[in-house]
Every structure is written in structure tokens, then in C-alpha cells.
Amino acid sequence: MKQIDTGITSKVWAVDNNGETFSLGSDQKWKKMNFRLTHVSAGGSGVWGVDTNNNVFRRVGGGNWKRIPGLKLKQIDSGPQGIVLGVTKSNQVYCRSGNKWKIINRRLKYISCGSTLGSTGCWGISPGNRVYYREEVTRKNCAGTSWVTIDGRMKQIEVGGNGDVYAVDSDGKLYVREGVSSSNLYGSGWKFLRGASSVTTGWSGQYLLDNGIVYRLSGDEGLLRTSEGDLLPLDTSCKASACIQACFLAGDMRANDQQGLTAFHTLFMREHNRIAKILRNLNRHWDGEKIFQETRKIIGAIIQKIVYVDYLPILLGPGALPRYSGHLDNVNPGIINAFTLAYRLGHSMIRSKFDLLNPNFDPIAPAVNLRFLFFNSSNINTYGIEPLLFGLAGNVSEKVDTHLTTEITEHLFERGNSHGENLAALNIQRTRDHGLPGYNEYRKLCKLGDAKTFEDTSSEIQDRENRRILKELYNNDPGLVELWVAGIAETPLPGAVVGPTLRCVVGEQFKRARDGDRYFYENEGIFTPRQVQEIRKTSLSRLYCDNLKDIVSIQRNAFKSSIKQPRPSCGEIAGLSLCAWKECLTGEPHFNPNTRKCVCRCSEKTKDCPNKWTDASGYSALPFSIYSERGRGYKPSRFVDLNGDGLLDFVYHILTPKKSFKGAYLNDPTLKKFVHKPEFDPPVALATEKSSDLGVRFVDLNGDEKADLVYGRLTNKDERVKGAYINTGSGWKLSPEYIPPRLIVSDDDGDLGVRFVELNGDGMVDFVFYRYISEKNQPKGAFINTGNGWKAAPQFTPPYPIASDYDHDNDYDYDYDYEDQSVRFVDLNGDGRMDIVYRQWISSDRVEKGAYINDGHTWVWSPQFIPPIHTDNKGAKFVDLNADGKVDLVYHTRISSKKSRKGAYMNNGYRWIWKSQYTPPFPIADEKNGDYGARFADVNGDGLPDMVWNRPGDKGGAINTGCEWKLDDAFSPPYSIASSKGKDLGARFVDLDGDGAVDMIRSLEQKNKSKKKGAKLACVSAGNGNVGV
Predict the structure, then answer these.
(1) Any stretches that span the bilayer, and where are they (predicted)?
(2) Cβ–Cβ under 8 Å, residues 482 and 439
(3) Does the residue 731 lie in any domain?
(4) CATH no. for residue 103?
(5) Which of the chain's ends, N or C, has fewer CB atoms near its CB within 10 Å?
(6) Any idea what DSSP says for residue 977?
(7) What pLDDT does 809 receive?
(8) What's the pLDDT score for residue 379?
(9) Using an 8 Å Cβ cutoff, are 457 and 438 in contact?
(10) H or E element at residue 500
(11) Is 435 exposed, middle or buried (0-12, 13-18, 19+ CB in 10 A)?
């Protein structure tokens, strides 16, 4: 993209280098608009743009562009409140007032307008990169009054409807304006953030351009916006007549209905920001987006705990809801129609007056009638939210009965001398609008019996006067009375605030909302057990203590009036410890009460494994070799899952000058041996005596967890051999739709840069390729597996060569002078999709390196993941050391008997962290001879990769404790893995019996045709775990 802009909607608008216009919706996908522009702007005045001829256009009717005649502009800005400004080719500034353009006296090359804490201000950049602020811009006076010179030199600036001001300087550095307040609308200084070429800001977030790529800029702290006094931000888009004084902006438009709602919205906003700040200190590697999302999740859990544990038992009485037993797929958590009326029981509990109390619960001002609190923020602006919330906690609500205060039956939303509305009448009418049946139907649903007359309701509506009135108004028919009317007339049950029918309907709704919500905080996997324990400690009273100024004490349950309850100090009110949210790469978070700090403490947990290696003679009887030393040495066999049972089976197919040998054997864990299944004999050769790679790959093409087969090879006679077979579960079936779109190997050039990887998260393997032949010849591309074949997906084309042609005559003929280009496909962020990293030495003054995250749509440049060491180093391995789903990096290369390069980096999801305790204790590779006989495999079945090694004269094992390596020679592999020259000795680590501990099997054909075979099961008593690699 060349230019971007966003405004008050969730859309981002952009123009690319070809002048094409795009919009980015909430689904994060670009949509082409089929209209060419050079500049686009979205804001409170709609979407405007200019084209190459400087004509001005406005988007109307949801999809059409209307040309605005008259003035020609090179840049335009759609500001708030219908204000539009623009800059001509000669840098003259204009604003649009009604249907006319009005000149503003200043030469600028760029201008942007937005709302800053209730005022509209326009920021501009002069041709000399000076920054200016235009004061007192209004809809009636779009030209404003005067210019203020701002410090700094910038080339582009943006101010959003949310008040944020961002700018980019001539060096491509991004800044945010600090110190902006209602008393200082143009702030105090610029704070550097990062590099960018341009920026835009709005309610949908902050977006920036960097090298043509659009990024969303997350806030550094993950905080919610506030206004002065730690109040909600001001809503500058609300009509002046909507609120007395200013409206506040919250997640619900009804936050301004009355001050009690405003106060609670503010309380939870403060709690969000309090938690976000603590999480930021606990996890410095988290970005603003991660902090925001995790805090949002915690706030949701806190609300659930308060509602279900502290509030509902008081409202509905003990035992109204059964104990939580986990998420139920068959429960619909949607809102029951009847609940829309039943839960309006709270209208009966509303008091006429709201007390304003200090932290000692003494009045600081006369109580205020509710009628004066509708859409009126004056008390909050004067006193803050504290007096109102202390008043709510300090007094008793009205009972649920038929008596409603006249504040809501005669003065609801009353303004000036106008008549107020009647909330009771609205509730009754809402019953009819929703088409709800009468009270009697709900009695039957709640198993209270079929009432023929109101005398039949005497057990529930115990007040005779209530029954008499209902009998008179509803012709003595309980089937005619509205649920809400009869519900509040019922006598409350013992220990409850409501009667049986409302308890039934309201209880059923909250039960469904809990049991049908897979994100409910107590559902397994949503939070860790320790985090759930912490959430259970919190309460509304604790939120008061943590977020209200000058608070001293409060009752333990804020839903019970402080009049009859003791008020312990806040130090005695339990709360959650956010230490449980500290991310530890190794160990677990621990709060040190002496230092008052949360630290990661390592408690080694190694699995007891009395039988390290046990003979498995049945498995050792492999019918063919894993590796043969004959000829150049070759690998004629593979371990693959043929029947989808999760166990690896054995196949082989070798082509010799005289004949071919092939076979297939299923792994039978009951018999503990491989059983011959000729129907699975590989249909094509896997190797010859001269080559171990004939371009055959076993991959799961159709997502059935059984290995299928594809092949593609260019022979030394220039023959193209290719094909595909689907594994049907009973044999192989030709599948031409899956023939690889590119050849995989070449007899002469080897690896052709093809890889099968999971790109889009659909569980089926996809296809990428990139081969460097010369500067002008670099075949590359990508294909998605549709389930019916391959479909071109150029967005997934690898950004760097996977392989290059080796120049046998001159190793330095060009930069890419060897086959392996160091590209590795690994999961960097734990989302199950393969990402890309590479780092390789090109020359003494040149290293090529990079990292790209796969976001499911394309490759996203992610420099924070650039590997700290060369990935073409044979001594470097990507392994998931702590089983968090994100790959880590270890390396140990032997240079000489006295020198080696070694270390370890763990991936915290944001960058590489040095972890010396995971430095491999034994070399992985030798600089001259390659393989040094070390492997990473989970030999004790605890789900963590261990390290074992065996080569002539040296063997050993190191168990991964979850914190570090712990040497344990009892786990030394029973068979040699590599020779002193780095040659393959036919030993493999495979979980043979499916118990999670990785076993060892060997089948080596020596040059003299003698065989070395064997099989050992690791940690036979182990339970389930992850298979090592």
C-alpha cells in the first residue's frame, strides 16, 4: 500500500501504488473498491478521496463515488462533525463549510483534523516540515481562529476521533504526541515509537505503513482510554442535547443513562488499566495487544465470578443454580425471550434518591433524586465516581414488589419541564412487543401448577391485596397477566429477593449462559488451575478497594448493605494475585513475600523411570535395513503411519540394477512387532544404491491422518517422473489431482526447493517452492491443498530461496553457492501454522537473515524472530524445549577437541531469550564430519524432549527437567547413532508401543552385507506423552 487512513468506523482505507482503492474490514481482509484514487480519507464526515487529476470525490450510497465539483485538491481529510479540509497542489489550505470551500491562511502540504478531549483541532505540516495546530475549529467555523507553532519537524501527521496524535518524520520514525489534555490541546512533546513511512489513527486503532506493508499499532500498555480524573473518555460524537454536560464513551451506549451505570463502567475501566499495568511489569515481553486481550479476558472472568458467586445467591437464594460441571455443547447460551422481562425485576429495587457518601460512608452533599441523574454527568465531574459508589454500597435497595418509585413511573428521562416516561408501562408493553405468553404458562414451565384463578396463586402471591388488584384488572385469569407484573407481585422465597417464578426463569437463563459458554472462567483450559483459584478470591468489594480514591474500609460483600455489615479495612479484603499470569519459559511463577516480587522458580520434576531400556526382540526383526553402507550409502526405508492409529509403521522400496525389493509392515503394539501388509507396499522406489532421495514424500494429503504418497523427480536423462497415491486404508489409489505441481528433486542438482507444509490451518498439507538458479531464473510459488487437489496461492510464495543449484566448477560463482539456503519452516507463535526463518553466511561482510510469521493469509515480516545463529549450521536444531507449542533453538558444534560453539535460545512468543541452562551438553555436529551422534527425543515420556547421544567412544543422556538438562547416563542410547566420521549407523528413535516414551530401533546393513539389528523400549512404565523427534 502507498497510503492508509481510518476513522470512526472499524474499516481501514488504503490506496496502492497503482491507485487502486481498498478497504480493510473487521475480518482483517482487504476488499478492492474498483475505483482509482491517489489519496483517501475516512472520518466523521464520511469517506473522501482525490484522484490523479486532483478531482475530489465522496463515497455515497454505500458503494458509489460522487465527484464534488469546484476545488481541486492533492490531499483531503475527513474530520469530525462534518468538517472536511484539504490541500491544493500549491499547498493552499481549504475547509468545506456547507457546500462551499473556505480558504484558511497558511501554506501546508498535509493536514489532519480530529477530536481531542471534546475539542476539534487540526494539525498541519508545512512544506518545510514544520508542525502547526489550528485552534477553535468547529462545524460552524471550519476555518478556526489561529495557528499555534508546534515543536518538532514532521513529514506527515494524523489525529483520530479518539484524540491520539501520531506523526512521522523525514527519517521514517514514528512519534506519538504526549501531554495532550483539555487544558493543553496540543500537548507537551513527541515520544518516539518505531519506524514507519506514514500513519493513521481512529476508533479502529492505529495503523502504519512500513515499506508498503500495513501494520496495526498496538498501544504500548494495553490500556483503555481515560479522560481527566481517571474517568471514561469523553464522547465527542454525541449530540449536545443528549447529555447535561459531556457524555462519556464506554462499551455500551447506555452508560450515560444514569450516573450509577456510568460509575460502574468507570470502575471496570479502572480495574482493566490497573491489571494491564501489573501484567506489563510481570511480562515485559508482551506487547500492548497481548496485554489488552489478556486483561480483557481476566475482567470477563472477574465479572462472571462476581455475578455467579457473590450476587446471584443473594438475588435467587441458595441452591438456585446447580454446581458447575463444565461446558455443555448442547446448551444454547442465548437469551431466553422471557428473560427480557423477568430480569426487569430490578426496576422494583430502585431507590428514589441516590446518596453521595465519603469513604467513611457519611454524606458529603444532599441525596439526589434519580430524575436528575439521567444523562447528567455533573456529579461525577464534580465529585468523581467515589461518592456515588460509596452511596450504592452503603444503603439498602428497595424490595422486589409492586411498589415502584415515581422517579421511574412519572419522571423517567424527564428533561426540563417535559413529562417523564413510565417504566412500568414500558415493561408491560414490552411483553406484548415480544409476544410473550401470560404468567400462568411460566408457572407450568416452572412446575408451580396451573392456576385457574388468582386464588390458586396464593402460595406464590401471598399478599391478598395484590391478588385482589390482579383479579380485578385481569378478569381473574392468571393467564392474562404479564410475567413481569405477576413476578414482582410474588412473595420472595426464604433467603432470596424474588419469588419462585422469577427465580425459575432468571435462574434458568444464568444457568444456560454459564453452561453453554465455552469461555466460562471455570471451564477447563480457559485459565490454569492456579489462575482460577486467584479469580475466585476477587469480589466487587476488592474492586472498590483497588480503584476508589481514599477508600478506607468496606463490607466483604458489596451486595450486602454496610448498614448491618462490619466494614473491615481493605487490607483484610482478599483479592487475586496476578503473579499467576507471569509467563515463565522455565519453572513456575512464585510470589516472594519478602521482596514482594513475582519470580520464576524452577522446581525440577523428573519422571520416575525404573526401566530405562527394555529389550523388544519382536520389533528388532525388521525385514529390511534402515540404512545400508553399500555403494554410496543409502536409506531404502521409512517410518510412516499407514493406518492412522498414531503408531509408525515400516515401508521400504529399493531399486537395484538387477531387481527391486519392497514391502510394508504395520506396527502391532499387542504383538510388539511389525506385521507384513503387502497391500501397502510402496508403489514407487524410495531409493537406489546411489541415491537415498528419489523425490518420494509421505504426507497426509486428505486430512485422514494416514500417510499418502507423492513423488516428483527429474532424472539424469531429463525424464520427468511424478505422481500421487492416496492411502485408502486398504491400499494405494492413484490420485492425479495431487501430482506435485513442481518436481521435488533432480538427479543432477538434488534438492529443488520444494517443501510440504501446513499453511492455512485447515489440517491438510500444502505445497511451497523457491529455487535459486540465477539472478534472472528463480522459480517460486505456493499451492493450497483444497481437499480435491492443488490451487495456486501466490500470497504464500516463500520470501527467500529454499534451495539453490550448486556450482561444482566454481563455488563462488554467485552468492548462493550451496544447496541449503538455511530456510526452516517452524511454528514460532504456537498457532499451528508453519512460519519461516533463515540466516546464512554469504561473505565476510554479508549475512542474509529474516523471519516471517504466517498469519493464515500471507507471510508477515517479523524481525524479532530472526534467528540469532546461522540456521544452515548442522549443529543447530529447532526443538520445543518447554512444550509450549513454540519452537526453541539450541546449538552445539564441535570445532576441535578444545573449542566449540554452543548455546540455547528460548522463544517466548515475541523474541528469542538466551537460556544458558539449555545449552546442549554434547555436540550435535562436528564442523568437519557433520553428525556427532546426538538426538532430541522424549525418552522418559514426560512430554519434554530429552537429549541422548552415542558415537564410538562416547555416549550419554541428559533429561529435560523443565528447567535445564540433568545428566543421566542410564538413558544412554543402547546403539551407536553415528560413526566417528559422521556416518549414519541405521539407528532411529520411534515411539514403537505408543506409550509416549520414544524407543530406539536399529537395522544396519554393513558393506560386507552383515546385519546389525535391535530394538529397545524406553521407560516401559511411562504414560502418555509427546513423541520425540
Answers:
(1) none
(2) yes
(3) no
(4) 2.130.10.30
(5) C
(6) -
(7) 39
(8) 87
(9) no
(10) helix 500-515
(11) exposed
User: Are the C-beta atoms of residues 428 and 438 closer than 8 Å to each other?
Assistant: no
Query: 148-197 pLDDT, tens per residue?
Result: 999 989 988 888 655 678 888 887 777 888 877 767 788 888 887 655 55
C-alpha cell at 94: 481549504
CA distance 225 to 203: 11
Residues 6+ apart with CB under 8 A from 489: 401, 402, 461, 463, 466, 470, 499
Distance CA 961, CA 167 (A): 49
Q: What is the largest CA-CA distance in the chain?
A: 109
Residue 98 near residue 88 (C-beta atoms within 8 A): no
In a domain, 115, yes or no: yes
β-pairing verdict for 353-357 and 363-369 = antiparallel
Triad 861, 865, 866: Cα angle to 5°: 85
Which grid cell is 891?
546449538
C-alpha cell at 920: 546442549
Cβ atoms of residues 544 and 550 within 8 Å: no
Q: What is the pLDDT of residue 75?
A: 94
Measure CA 853 to chain center: 14
What span, in angstroms and rounded, lies between the C-alpha atoms of 606 and 940? Answer: 9
Instruction: Name beta bridge partners: 15.
Output: 3, 21
Read off the pLDDT band of 2 (50, 70, 90): confident
Percent of the chain with pLDDT over 70: 91
Candidates 541, 531, 520; CA nearest to 577 is 531
Tens of pLDDT, residues 606-630: 667 888 999 999 998 898 999 999 8
pLDDT-derived band at 27 (thresholds 50, 70, 90) equals low
Convert the pLDDT of each residue in 957-1001 to its tens digit: 999 999 999 999 999 999 999 999 999 999 999 999 999 999 999
Calculate the CA dihedral of residues 147, 150, 152, 156 and round it to 10 degrees. -50
Query: Would residue 22 count as lying in a domain?
Result: yes
In DSSP notation, 296-325 reads HHHHHHHHHHIIIIIIHHHHH-TTSSPPP-
CA 178 and chain centroid, separation: 29
Angle separating helix axes 288-305 and 529-537, nearest 10 degrees: 60
pLDDT band at 6 (very low <50, low <70, confident <90, very high): confident
CB 231 within 8 A of CB 245: no
Q: What percent of the chain has pLDDT over 90?
A: 64
d(CA 384, CA 382): 6
Cβ atoms of 78 and 48 closer than 8 Å: yes
Predicted pLDDT of residue 194: 59
The whole-angstrom separation of Cα 738 and Cα 696 is 13
pLDDT, residue 3, reads 81
User: What is the average per-residue pLDDT within 567-596?
Assistant: 90
Q: Which residues contact 322 (CB under 8 A, 6 or more apart)?
A: 511
Residue type for 3, please?
Answer: Q
What's residue 805's pLDDT?
78
Enclosing domain of residue 56:
3-217
| pTM score | 0.65
Write down which residue in 174, 201, 217 finishes a domain: 217
Tens digit of each residue's pLDDT (9 = 90 or more) over 1012-1023: 999 999 998 643
Establish how many alpha carbons lie within 13 A of residue 969's alpha carbon, considering only the half-sphere containing its beta carbon.
2
Cα–Cα distance list, 408 to 254, 348, 421, 423, 1007 (Å): 16, 10, 7, 6, 97
User: Does residue 870 fall inside a structural domain?
Assistant: no
3-state SS assignment for residue 741: coil
Domain count for the chain: 2
Residue reference for cell 501554506: 107
- Cell numbers for 469: 388488584
pLDDT score of 992: 95
